[in-house]
Amino acid sequence: MSTTPIITASGKITSEIYHLDIKQYNMPRSCSIFLLMTPESVVIMDVGTSDDVNSILEFMKNINLPLKKVKYLVPSHHHFDHFGGGWKLWETIRKNNPEIKILTTEKTKRLLQDPNDHINRAKRTFGVYVGIMEPVPDEAYEIVGTDEPIQIPGFEKGFKLIATPGHTSDHVCPTVFNDDITEFVYLSECAGGLLHSQKLITLPSSMPPEFDFNTYIQSLQKIIDLKPLNTGYAHAGVVRGQDGVMQALKENIEYSFYFRDFVKSNFLKQGETRYVVEQFIKREMEKRSDIPYNELYTNYVVAVVYGQLIDLGLKEPK
Ligand SMILES: [Zn+2]
Questions:
Q1: What is the whole-number distance in angstroms between the Cα of residue 189 and the centre of ligand 1?
Q2: Which phi and psi angles does 249 have, rounded to 5°?
Q3: In what order do the strands lie in the sheet with 230-233?
Q4: Domain covering 6-260, topology
Q5: How many Å lie between the centroid of ligand 1 and the Cα of residue 234?
Q6: How many Å lie between the centroid of ligand 1 and the Cα of residue 312?
Q7: DSSP state of 99
Q8: pLDDT digits (tens, 9 = 90+) for 61-71
Q9: What does the pLDDT read at residue 110?
């Protein structure tokens, strides 16, 4: 029997939280989303790209979850791989359920409603994988503040969007509290990526152009202080149990410093982003991920290296 606290498969992880591997780009473990399900309502936290919407609808059909139960779609941040399909899922569900809202902050709404800058930039690195992003009518949104209690219909426990900027300026962690206990934090990308199914070792999430190292570390410390019992990673899966959760979060702090030095020292050797990317794939990716190599690996590494170089002041944002 496995003793690892890491869960990669889809399934229920607490009495209300469901982890769904959306098999983004037809690959397992590339992207996870989370659903909060109560007898009365459902909240979907992130939805993937516009190409992932059908698989979410199919999942709901398979478990007999009526569309009219979905009260909220909640983005963790505006990036295409997490909420690029938000508009499409909202439009589809609204046909059955006119009450459905995108529950988010003013900042994320602004970025989702005006996605061209992000989409054009993302296409340069990720090409066809970015899907389509479109604005929706203003009435689609219910705007909330960060770090304040949000009432979910039929849900007795606490729910908040914890502000966790760093990966992007608008990043939040949807979080479930049971009194003083933090039952579940959807980390999304505020604590790196978890691409190993056995070891609590993480990878960076320093995407351009918004990544801010100091803010990222502060946000991560804020989550550590909550001592969560369970966490969800957008890339990808779940860490269950406080010991494992804390280990993975602290590991990501350490690894963030290591990665920053790695990028800086290797860039200064040759002055070339490509050299840093090659070194990272050769020396780090192999041991820190047990997902078989695929072409998106390289795109991902290019992005996190470049984001780090911009924050280090060694490259200009394009
Ligand atoms: Zn992101």
A1: 6
A2: -65, -45
A3: 6-7, 237-240, 230-233, 181-188, 172-178, 158-163
A4: Metallo-beta-lactamase; Chain A (3.60.15)
A5: 9
A6: 19
A7: T
A8: 999 999 999 99
A9: 98
